[in-house]
């Protein structure tokens, strides 16, 4: 095969736009790149400014360039007898066909391949498939992104990487891929068919590299073969070793592994406090700011304690991100640093693991909802099986809508065959469970912690000592899990997976299988299935109607959150009018669904007993699982609609854009402190809670109250520690408050406020050369500022990125912000924490308003009412502490390393004018604080930055001397 890799730069992406540059790289049959052709093209029209800023191509670059016809005369001969390749090739192919047509050539009719498809299939775990990111991941030179010749060469090198990867795949995987695409009338089908034919004529290699099972090549063997990490006959490696001796050895090894390693005071204090709490069976609240190194601060004592006492320690994080960071970064480091073998296992919720039985079933039946996308996802996963040892979806870059695919192949308890499953010994979920059972330290997440509690501790291995990281989220997660939440789509997906129409769904698939079987009862069973269809349709129609009516109750209020979020609280005391007619619809759903579930489960049990066929077994298991899901949805809905418990807050949320299809129902306990006390602090010997933000004005009382630790505190069972900051905030951070800044009521700024804010942000951004993160508490205010700020900065080449305005996820926006030399990023609630932008990329953090939660949010409202009944002040006991913790989280975005320096601007003058403002300022880790008139702010910021620059230069010079 000879490939021609094509890339165009154009004046836009509509078919009427013009080509301004072309790049073509030719790959010969021996896989050498023999030629890279590139030229500008004169488009005959001015180049739009945003294209110039993206590509760097100006009108003067193309002024003397050849016109389209002249360029095509050179290009067309090079496209003879080649396979055309591009990165997102449809775009370039469209422009090529257009140009061929305009210049009087026949259309291109050869084969076309897309490197996007190849990358997804060959490298299923790449974090991004964007060309620049891929090039840097592979260490390819790509010095002029968005210039056609550089893009074409980079794409050609990426294609060669993919072809090498395909060469290394086992033959069985190639055959699977070829079968998968065979039904597609596509050039990928032609390509894999060719590779298969070629490989089948070679002698077979790689028989020992993979495990072959049921026509798949896997990277893992049976999990039943995994042995404990230490031999039980041998003496305990810590039998006569004190904790200090152990730490001495660990530090020695850390110095060997990391030449720049030095002990940190705060981390040493933390290690001592954690081991003391574990040893004395006490609970501990420990606040550890950024830079403490808190993961090692609790992991080192946990490893010592669990190995010495032979009792495992459970570690729980709030985010999967932190769980991954512990897996990828901290555990491998400690495996080298700890002087004896230990095992730390990561164990997530079941839905994160691939169910091999469901995957095999889906592929063999080609059960694809959106065939074009699903076939690529299936191919990605077939290749991933040759690489993954955990089967964890976090390793897969599924992008976009393909999460729907994952839902149909994820492991779940309701459709698990357990030991009866042919895949049992290879099962990823049971592997993770087995490894957790063998581990000294198990790393899970808050969500799984509560799922385990609800399942009577059947999911996690037993533990008496627990470390909770990111503990400021515990109360929130507890509420969600100890309560109830239901989405419109959760129920709809379950119903449509059972029965979408006469051809799609698990019941029609079963019907089809039965009609082809010789079983004498088949006709009778088909009759049952046919009678189920109308009932399921009725349930779906009632469910849709109920959601529409519930959505109709929600008043459309002014500021509706980040993306038009609307909320409404429902009160058990005062139900909305016409609630009875809604309850009647729910009753009909309850009755009809009850009948469906009864018949469905009975049918499944009967078929399973009488029909001995693995294909049918697999299908029956999935159908039984779906009926079980429906049963739990039915109970959940019944509970929600009953509105009969005053200790529960009931509310609905929806988006004004997607209306009733986005409806979510919640029923959450107002106060979870008693349950947390009972489930954890009374039952466990030692619970360690840590986070960067646990205290308010140097006191832990807010956390003690909300987590149910008051009794432990009174009985001397609780120790609280606030660690000193490892950073010199006085030198590293300046906090500025413009004291005459206009104030604002509510979530919308008046014209004066918005104008002053835009002007101040624009001037500051010029002084800091962009590199600025602006945090809002209201999405509407972010939108009010976005366009005018863009306008104000248009002449200074500083880009403005806005959450929810510029497409893409939070991660994508942060990446764009980090990659761009000068930009301002506007974010709302999800940017206040968990965003890590160390170094030069972030110099200035602007906080527009103090992050109070909207008092009208149902949960806040109910908690406030409860405090009022207890004769407490809800504002001081709830609103202020919550806002202070969020404010500290926001502040923590700025200084992430000992080298970071930066400015924080607080535009909300309540921090200096109100009686509660001091709680915000006193809770910060000691930056330099100044307030001044707004017009003096930018000169002061410039002066502080310059002074710091000079100091750095002086320091560098003194180092050189």
Automatic annotation (TrEMBL):
The keyword Endoplasmic reticulum does not apply. Residues 756-960 form the Helicase C-terminal domain. Keywords: ATP-binding, Exonuclease, Helicase, Hydrolase, Nuclease, Nucleotide-binding. Residues 253-530, 275-536 form the Helicase ATP-binding domain. InterPro entries: ATP-dep_Helicase_C, DEAD/DEAH_box_helicase_dom, DinG, DinG/Rad3-like, DnaQ, Helic_SF1/SF2_ATP-bd_DinG/Rad3, Helicase_ATP-bd, Helicase_C-like. It catalyses: ATP + H2O = ADP + phosphate + H(+). SMART domains: DEXDc, EXOIII, HELICc2. Its EC number is 3.1.-.-. A motif (DEAH box) lies at residues 469-472. It is an enzyme of class 3 (hydrolase). ATP binds at residues 288-295. Signal peptide: none annotated. GO terms for molecular function: helicase activity. Its cofactor is [4Fe-4S] cluster. It holds the Pfam family Helicase_C_2. Belongs to the helicase family. DinG subfamily. Type 2 sub-subfamily. 3'-5' exonuclease. This is 3'-5' exonuclease DinG. It comes from Paenibacillus campinasensis. The gene is dinG.
């Amino acid at each position: 095969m000879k490939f021609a890799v094509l890339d165009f730069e154009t004046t836009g992406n509509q078919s009427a736009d013009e080509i301004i540059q072309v790049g073509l790289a030719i790959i010969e049959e021996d896989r050498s790149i023999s030629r890279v052709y590139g030229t500008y093209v004169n488009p005959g029209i001015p180049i739009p400014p945003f294209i110039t800023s993206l590509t760097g191509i100006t009108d003067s670059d193309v002024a003397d360039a050849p016109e389209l016809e002249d360029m095509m005369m050179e290009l067309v001969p090079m496209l003879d007898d080649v396979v055309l390749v591009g990165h997102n090739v449809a775009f370039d192919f469209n422009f090529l066909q257009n140009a061929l047509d305009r210049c009087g050539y026949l259309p291109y009719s050869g084969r076309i391949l897309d490197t996007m498809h190849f990358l997804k299939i060959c490298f299923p775990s790449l974090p991004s498939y964007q060309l620049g990111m891929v090039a840097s991941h592979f260490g390819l030179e790509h010095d002029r992104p968005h210039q056609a010749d550089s893009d074409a060469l980079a794409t050609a090198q990426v294609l060669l990487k993919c072809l090498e990867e395909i060469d290394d795949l086992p033959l069985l995987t190639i055959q699977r891929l070829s079968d998968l695409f065979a039904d597609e009338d596509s050039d990928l089908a032609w390509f894999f068919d060719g590779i298969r034919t070629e490989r089948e004529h070679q002698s077979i290699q790689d028989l020992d590299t993979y495990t072959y099972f049921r026509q798949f090549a896997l990277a893992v063997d049976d999990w039943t073969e995994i042995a404990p990490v230490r031999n039980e006959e041998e003496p305990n490696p810590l039998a006569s070793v004190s904790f200090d001796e152990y730490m001495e050895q660990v530090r020695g090894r850390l110095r060997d592994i990391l030449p720049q390693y030095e002990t940190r005071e705060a981390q040493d204090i933390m290690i001592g406090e954690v081991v003391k709490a574990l040893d004395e069976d006490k609970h501990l609240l420990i606040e550890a700011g950024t830079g403490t190194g808190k993961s090692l601060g609790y992991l080192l004592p946990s490893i010592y304690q669990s190995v010495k006492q032979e009792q495992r320690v459970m570690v729980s994080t709030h985010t999967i991100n932190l769980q991954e960071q512990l897996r990828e970064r901290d555990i491998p480091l400690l495996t080298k640093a700890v002087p004896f073998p230990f095992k730390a296992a990561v164990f997530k919720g079941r839905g994160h693991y691939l169910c091999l039985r469901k995957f095999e079933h889906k592929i063999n039946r080609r059960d694809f909802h959106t065939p074009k996308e699903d076939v690529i996802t299936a191919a990605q996963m077939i290749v991933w099986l040759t690489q993954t040892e955990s089967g964890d979806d976090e390793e897969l870059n599924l992008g976009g809508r393909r999460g729907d695919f994952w839902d149909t192949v994820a492991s779940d308890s309701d459709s698990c065959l357990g030991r009866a499953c042919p895949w049992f010994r290879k099962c990823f979920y049971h592997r993770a469970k087995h490894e957790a059972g063998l581990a000294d330290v198990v790393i899970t997440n808050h969500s799984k912690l509560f799922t385990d509690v609800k399942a009577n501790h059947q999911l996690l291995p037993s533990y008496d000592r627990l470390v909770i990281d990111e503990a400021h989220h515990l109360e929130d997660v507890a509420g969600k899990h100890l309560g109830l939440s239901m989405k419109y789509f959760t129920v709809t997906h379950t119903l449509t997976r059972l029965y979408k129409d006469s051809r799609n769904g698990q019941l029609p698939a079963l019907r089809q299988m039965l009609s082809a079987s010789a079983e004498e009862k088949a006709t009778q069973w088909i009759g049952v299935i046919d009678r189920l269809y109308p009932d399921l349709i009725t349930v779906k129609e009632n469910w849709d109607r109920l959601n529409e009516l519930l959505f109709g109750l929600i008043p459309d209020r002014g500021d509706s959150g980040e993306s038009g979020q609307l909320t409404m609280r429902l009160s058990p005391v005062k139900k909305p009018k016409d609630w009875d007619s809604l309850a009647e619809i729910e009753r009909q759903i309850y009755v009809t669904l009850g009948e469906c579930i009864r018949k469905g489960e009975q049918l499944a049990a009967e078929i399973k007993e009488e029909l001995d066929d693995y294909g049918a077994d697999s299908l029956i298991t999935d159908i039984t699982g779906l009926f079980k899901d429906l049963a739990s949805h039915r109970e959940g809905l019944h509970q929600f609609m009953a509105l009969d418990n005053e200790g529960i807050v009931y509310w609905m949320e929806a988006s004004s854009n997607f209306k009733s299809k986005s409806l979510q129902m919640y029923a959450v306990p107002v106060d979870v402190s008693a349950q947390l006390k009972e489930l954890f602090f009374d039952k466990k010997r030692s619970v360690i809670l840590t986070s960067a933000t646990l205290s308010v004005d140097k006191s832990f009382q807010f956390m003690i109250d909300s987590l149910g630790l008051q009794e432990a505190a009174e009985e001397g069972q609780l120790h609280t520690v606030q660690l000193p900051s490892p950073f010199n905030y006085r030198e590293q951070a300046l906090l500025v408050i413009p004291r005459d800044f206009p104030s604002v009521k509510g979530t919308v700024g008046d014209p004066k406020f918005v104008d002053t804010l835009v002007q101040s942000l624009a001037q500051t951004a010029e002084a800091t050369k962009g590199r600025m993160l602006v945090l809002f508490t209201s999405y509407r205010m972010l939108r009010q500022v976005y366009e005018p700020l863009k306008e104000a900065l248009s002449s200074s080449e500083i880009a403005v990125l806005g959450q929810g305005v510029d497409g893409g996820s939070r991660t994508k926006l942060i990446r764009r912000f980090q990659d761009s030399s000068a930009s301002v990023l506007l974010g709302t609630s999800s940017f206040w924490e968990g965003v890590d932008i160390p170094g030069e990329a972030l110099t200035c953090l602007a906080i527009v308003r103090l992050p109070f939660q909207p008092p009208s949010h149902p949960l806040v409202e109910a908690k406030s009412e409860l405090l009022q009944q207890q004769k407490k002040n809800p504002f001081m006991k709830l609103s202020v502490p919550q806002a202070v913790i969020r404010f500290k989280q926001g502040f923590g975005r700025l200084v992430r390393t000992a080298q970071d320096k930066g400015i924080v601007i607080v535009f909300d003058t309540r921090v200096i004018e109100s009686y509660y403002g001091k709680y915000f300022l006193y809770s910060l880790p000691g930056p330099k604080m100044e307030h001044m008139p707004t017009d003096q702010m930018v000169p002061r910021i410039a002066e502080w930055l310059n002074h710091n620059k000079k100091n750095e230069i002086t320091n560098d010079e003194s180092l050189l001397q």
